[in-house]
Amino acid sequence: MAREHKHADGTANLVAEFTLDGLELKTGDIICTANGKEDIPVGEFWRLLGRLLPGEVDHVIIYLGPDGLCVEAGAKGVNLFMLPGATWDAPAMVEQRGLYVDTLVGAAYPLKGRGLSPEQEKNIRIQVRRFCLKQARLKKPYNLNFLNPNTDRAFYCSQLPYRAYLPHGINLNTGAGVTDLIDSERIIFPQEIWAGCFHRKVPVRQV
After folding, report:
1. What contacts 96, CB < 8 A, 6 or more positions away?
2. How does pLDDT run across 69-108, given as a tens digit for each residue?
3. Of 132, 160, 143, 151, nearest to 75 (Cα)?
4. What are 131-164's pLDDT values in tens digits?
């Protein structure tokens, strides 16, 4: 479900809602994943690569809406893609995402617990969406210099939400869960976004 509000300048200020594997998402919320998927060959490659990163979260994606529209900074640079449905299905999104395969861990909520009014929260979500759409429209490349998260010329996955939220007084470079690592103050790790925000793991499916 999505709600649009039209302003005099003709732009659409969109705050969308979506449910993914039982996780409630709104525009600007962050989908958190772990590299790889064990039952497909390319997934095994990404799973092994994920062992180089700290913690259980290796990658982050920003939910934008409407419907399943998301943005991430990955192999294709800042890239928009669509969730194929209400269930995470990485193999179905391989072509959209440049052969990247991952497993859903949960969702992080950067705005939760900050004492924001509904109007303040809505405005931040709209501005985060606009920022991300702009970077995708400009086809910003992937940032291989993880020690430079303060550039907007290129982005790595966790740098994108960091830069999107920073102008609103929300610093996702918390160091949570990675404080014992070298350069943890400069590198924005996916795990620290997960650990530093209110978050929820994907519900365990009943079999």
Report:
1. 79, 81, 82
2. 999 999 899 999 999 999 999 999 999 998 888 999 999 9
3. 143
4. 999 999 999 999 999 999 999 999 999 999 999 9
Burial class (CB in 10 A: 0-12, 13-18, 19+), 201: middle
- Amino acid letter, 134: K
Structure tokens at 39: 């039952």
Residues 108-134: b if buried by 16+ CB within 10 A, e if exposed: bbbbeeeeeeeeebbebbbbbbebbbe
Neighbours of 23 (CB within 10 A): 22
**DSSP assignment letter at 10:** S
Q: What span, in angstroms and rounded, lies between the C-alpha atoms of 136 and 131?
A: 9
Sheet of 198-201, strands arranged across: 77-82, 69-74, 59-63, 30-35, 102-109, 198-201
What torsion, rounded to 10 degrees, do the Cα atoms 202, 22, 198, 81 define? 90
- Give the separation between CA 187 and CA 194, rounded to whole angstroms: 14
Residue written as token pair 């690569």: 49
Nearest CA among 194, 193, 75 for reference residue 144: 75
